[in-house]
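ingest -> validate -> predict -> emit
validate: passed (alphabet ok, no gaps, 60 aa)
predict: started
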Amino acid sequence: MIQIAFLNAFNNFKKGKKSKKIKNMDFREQHVRRSSELIGNNVIVQNIINNHLAKKNNHL
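emit:
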C-alpha cells in the first residue's frame, strides 16, 4: 500500500498537481500525523527527482 501511495504522489508531482488531501487539510489531532506523512512523502519525491535530474545533467 505504501508503494501505491508513493507512486500516486510521484505521478501527481510529475503532473504538477497538489494532493487533494493536502489542499483540504484537517488540523484536528487525528489528522495531523497523516497530513505530515503526506508532506514528508512529497519531500522524498522531490529529493528523488532532484537526484535523478542531477544525474541526467552530469551525463550531458
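Residues 26 and 32 are 7 Å apart (CA to CA).
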